[in-house]
Write a structure and sequence with these properties.
alpha+beta; Immunoglobulin-like
């Protein structure tokens, strides 16, 4: 009995004799998000989700003449985005579009269960299994949303056909497709979800077999190499985009998402440990100050190189999958570091890869340079990142305010209302009043019918050094940056929580000769856009700041041009005996920089003067 109790406390339960790992956090009953984030969600909903021609995405499945490309992923990426959007804001218009998209896809399914666009001779090659994965993910999302048995049946038949095809070949999945089998074996995720919905053991067995094959000579060694830098697990291949490439960022993280689903089903510590170690390595060695990474779609040890010009930097598919992986781990553990990582990525890399109207999504986004448009892929009018971007955008609402066994978690800060249930099952409403991150002030009102004892946990971002947290005007003690402040009390209707975070401008440095500096404010990376007021900074400026902080003055601006804008004084190079007075320049949030109707040059890392008097 003691062992059983300890497992429950650790997030494990016994089902059918199997130890299952349970998520610590679950979604609220509903979310209504306002402010800037609410506007971005609304724009994407109207201009990307609803405007997408689903028939165009289904068309390749009707012809089955493909031998190497990846058109079959686009339907699943858009559809899973649309399901997230519908869960956030259910409307009859979107529901009708989802219904038609599912029935249209299922209509292409052959008698053997196959849904795909590859020729008979080319099945299992290149991106065929990858495309089947996205079809299953979409069908299973629809079943989870509606309970429609036709979609579950179709997903089962896709899985059964895949398993049969692999068996008839040689039984090995990791030699199929690209990137050391990571693209093909990332099908682990929907296979695990299918087992969750059906309890059919053959799917669990197939999932375990996929993971076993990872550790064979030909596999990606995703568990055994979890202690090795993600950029150094395999030798650099002769052909960058080839089977031998073992550093593919997006596909690697997709496999780890599947491994976490298998961990939920089995409770095997090795699975979770491999993901956590890899996540930490990515965070430490790859993720830049905009919250993403990867060059030409591969891990490359890029964190220390981020001030340099980088080829094909920050693929949007990488950004989206990083956010999804972080939230997978966050739901399991409730650890603040995963939410910190999402916040940084969401406000910078993700929002920086989309247009304000939500229609366009970039393929790559540099930290300095120009935001350049991507192109269509596979003979279609969109590419992988246009299809995938909204999956990251609509991933956030489900994680804003969440429920735990002993109370609530307030994870992100936006104007909005969130309906949940207390530990006793009573409705509780959380109302946030804030313009964060324009300022660091967050007001939270608790609404419930009867008083109740439970915890409310509020994330204190790691970047915030000075924090003030009060309940009904009384200060909360032990508020620690990078952790959740846990407040346990008898909550009553109308109770007020106030949080004030440290929004001073922070200077971050990188490199030696030359050294570069960047300015962060809250979770937001600031940039110099040539369209803003002030002189061009060039390479001859030093930041004027003390103890790593600089004074930023909010600047009135047109919301059509930028979201956040600040004025900052820099110390310029001078050849006068007494030097020159500091110059004033305007900076804006990275997501807005160069992201207007006209492409303009922007810069986030500023080269610092080499001064031998200061040890350089």
């Amino acid at each position: 009995m003691k062992k059983y109790t300890s497992l429950l406390l650790a997030g494990f339960v016994f089902i059918g004799g199997i130890t299952v790992a349970q998520d610590k956090l679950s979604r609220a009953k509903s979310e209504i998000i306002g402010g800037f984030i609410g506007e971005r969600l609304s724009n994407s909903y109207k201009n990307r989700i609803l405007l997408q021609d689903a028939d165009e995405l289904i068309e390749p499945f009707k012809h089955r003449n493909e031998t190497s490309l990846w058109q079959s992923e686009f339907w699943g990426k858009w559809f899973t985005s649309a399901v997230l959007a519908y869960k956030y804001q259910p409307t009859p218009e979107l529901k009708q579009k989802l219904n038609a998209a599912v029935s249209g896809l299922i209509a292409t399914q052959s008698a053997d269960g196959y849904i795909g666009n590859y020729t008979k001779e080319s099945r299992l090659k290149q991106w065929d299994i990858w495309g089947r994965k996205y079809c299953m993910l979409g069908l299973l999302d629809y079943y989870s949303l509606t309970g429609d048995k036709k979609s579950l049946k179709a997903a089962r038949e896709v899985a059964d056909n895949l398993m049969d095809d692999i068996k008839k070949a040689d039984g090995i999945i990791v030699t199929k497709g690209n990137y050391r089998g990571m693209a093909a074996s990332s099908v682990l995720e929907p296979i695990c979800l299918l087992y969750t919905q059906t309890n059919d053991k053959k799917y669990l067995d197939f999932a375990e077999e996929i993971v076993r094959q990872w550790e064979t000579a030909e596999g990606p060694h995703l568990i055994s190499k979890a202690d090795i830098d993600v950029a150094r697990r395999f030798p650099k291949p002769e052909n960058w985009y080839s089977f031998e490439q073992g550093q593919k960022a997006y596909e690697m993280m997709s496999c780890y998402e599947g491994l976490l689903e298998l961990y939920r089903l089995t409770g095997k510590p090795a699975y979770n440990t491999a993901v956590e170690k890899t996540w930490q390595n990515i965070r430490d060695k790859e993720i830049n100050n905009a919250g993403s990474g990867a060059s030409a779609e591969m891990w490359f040890g890029g964190k220390t190189l981020q001030a340099d010009p980088i080829f094909h930097y920050q693929e949007t598919c990488v950004t989206v999958t990083w956010i999804k992986l972080c939230h997978q781990l966050f739901r399991l553990t409730g650890e603040a570091k995963y939410a910190d990582a999402v916040e940084q990525s969401y406000y910078n890399a993700l929002l920086g890869s989309t247009s304000h109207d939500g229609f366009h999504w970039a393929k790559y986004t540099p930290l300095s340079g120009l935001r350049l448009p991507g192109s269509g892929q596979c003979g279609m009018n969109l590419n992988c990142c246009v299809a995938s971007g909204p999956r990251g955008l609509f991933n956030l609402p489900a994680h804003m305010v969440m429920k735990a066994a002993d109370g609530l978690f307030i994870n992100y800060f936006t104007e909005g209302n969130y309906l949940l249930t207390t530990p006793s099952g009573k409705n509780v409403s959380i109302a946030q009043h804030t313009d964060y991150p324009a300022t660091g002030k967050v007001g939270i009102t608790i609404k419930l019918l009867k008083p109740e004892d439970f915890n409310i946990n509020i994330r204190i971002p790691k970047w915030s050094s000075k924090n003030v947290l009060t309940v009904n005007g009384v200060a909360v003690k032990e508020v620690i940056s990078g952790q959740f402040a846990s407040i346990k009390r008898n909550w009553k209707d109308g109770d007020e929580i106030a949080l004030e975070l440290d929004m001073r401008g922070r200077v971050e440095f990188i490199g030696d000769k030359p050294q570069y500096a960047a300015v962060m404010r809250g979770p937001v990376l600031l940039a110099r856009d040539e369209a803003l007021n002030g002189l061009s900074l060039g390479t001859i400026v030093n930041l004027a700041g003390k103890a790593g902080y600089v004074d930023l003055e909010a600047v009135p601006h047109s919301p059509e041009s930028t979201w956040l804008q600040f004025r900052l004084k820099f110390s310029p190079e001078s050849y006068k005996e007494q030097g020159d007075e500091p110059i004033t320049v305007d900076l804006c949030d990275y997501a807005s920089a160069g992201n207007g109707k006209k492409a303009t040059y922007f810069q986030t890392w500023f080269p610092q003067l080499i001064d031998p008097k200061k040890g350089h």
